[in-house]
Design a protein that fits this description.
Blueprint (H helix, E strand, L loop, with lengths): L1 H7 L1 E5 L2 E5 L2 H4 L8 H4 L2 E8 L2 E9 L1 H5 L4
Antiparallel strand pairs: 1-2, 2-3, 3-4
């Protein structure tokens, strides 16, 4: 699931960290559209220091998880 978030997630920057978030709109255009209910709201936080890419944490953004758009 983390790899899906890194490949397709919406990228945001916050205090030196990179945050990838999966939403319904993004998942609709991927081969993982069948798993939208499961993947909705997944956030992965990474430290982006070249040449290494370090995963800090992964969590479910509850506000996005509750918001269902069809």
């Amino acid at each position: 699931m983390i790899q899906v978030a890194l490949m397709y997630g919406c990228k945001h920057y916050n205090k030196g960290a990179v945050i990838y978030t999966l939403t319904d709109r993004i998942l609709r255009q991927t081969p993982y559209f069948r798993f939208t209910d499961t993947l909705r709201g997944l956030c992965v936080v990474c430290q982006n220091q070249l040449p290494e890419f370090q995963l800090l944490t992964a969590y479910w953004h509850e506000e996005t998880k509750r918001r269902v758009r069809k």
